[in-house]
Amino acid sequence: MTNQTVLPAPPVLSPTGTAFFLDLDGTLAEIVADPLEARVAPETLEALARLQEATQGALAVVSGRSLVQLETMLHPLHLPLAGVHGFERRESDGYVRRAEVDSDLLADLVTDVVDFTSRQRGLLTEAKSGSVALHYRKRPELETTCRAFAATLANRDRRIRLMPGKMVIELTLGSLTKGDAIAEFMTLRPFAGRVPLFIGDDVTDEAGFDVVNSMLGVSVKVGPGLTHANYRLEGVRDVTRYIQMVLKS
Ligand SMILES: O=P(O)(O)OC[C@H]1O[C@H](O[C@H]2O[C@H](CO)[C@@H](O)[C@H](O)[C@H]2O)[C@H](O)[C@@H](O)[C@@H]1O
């Protein structure tokens, strides 16, 4: 991956020629201790609404969150969405697609993670369609224990994939990534034929950067850390400022 110190700020792209793909947590919303407390700031929502109009709809949020959570956090906007790292998608026409999973396997996973987190103060379970997240942000000293527990669960069935994120370990069923979601959107109107841009902050965004890079698009990492992205913005406020600059171009 690229060295963290050398990436420039992204070029200000034209809203009419670009397909915008944005991650949510750490990109449009500041990271906070409790996932349910995360918010998209009003000025960011306003910038997104204007960008949706300026791009004629070529703006999608691509997130690890569920579609239900994304709708709540982005209200009153109605955007194309990819949730649970590409497992579920809401397309521009409102049509929702979900990958199929073994619901019994998922239910067992959720039960096991809830059982584990309920025995340790501060650990959280976030159950989603197709995935369950084990959050340890309030107990960072338990990272190794949480990782070992998650690995034990994943060893039970090869369909379970571990996706480490920011103070979270997700146990996901299936192999879809944010890259798959972006590639799929890029085959559809109004995204097709535009230059893709993806902005994200986490290791799970790297699959999106790879797909965008393969399409000669613009990949932007938010914050520090090694990455396959070609550009960098420092934080969530800089992402909103970047969108505002695009709107002025
Ligand atoms: O792909 P994203 O939109 O960035 O979503 C990734 C995960 O974000 C959420 O967890 C992260 O943000 C929380 C709120 O700031 C924070 O408390 C947690 O430690 C982070 O890992 C969300 O809860 C997950 O479902 C997403 O997969």
UniProtKB/TrEMBL annotation:
Superkingdom of source: Bacteria
EC number assigned by the record: 3.1.3.12
Listed Pfam families: Trehalose_PPase (PF02358)
UniProt keyword Metal-binding present: yes
This protein's pathway: Glycan biosynthesis; trehalose biosynthesis
Signal peptide as annotated in the record: none
Catalytically driven reaction(s): alpha,alpha-trehalose 6-phosphate + H2O = alpha,alpha-trehalose + phosphate
GO molecular function: trehalose-phosphatase activity
The name this protein goes by in its record: Trehalose 6-phosphate phosphatase
Organism: Aquamicrobium zhengzhouense
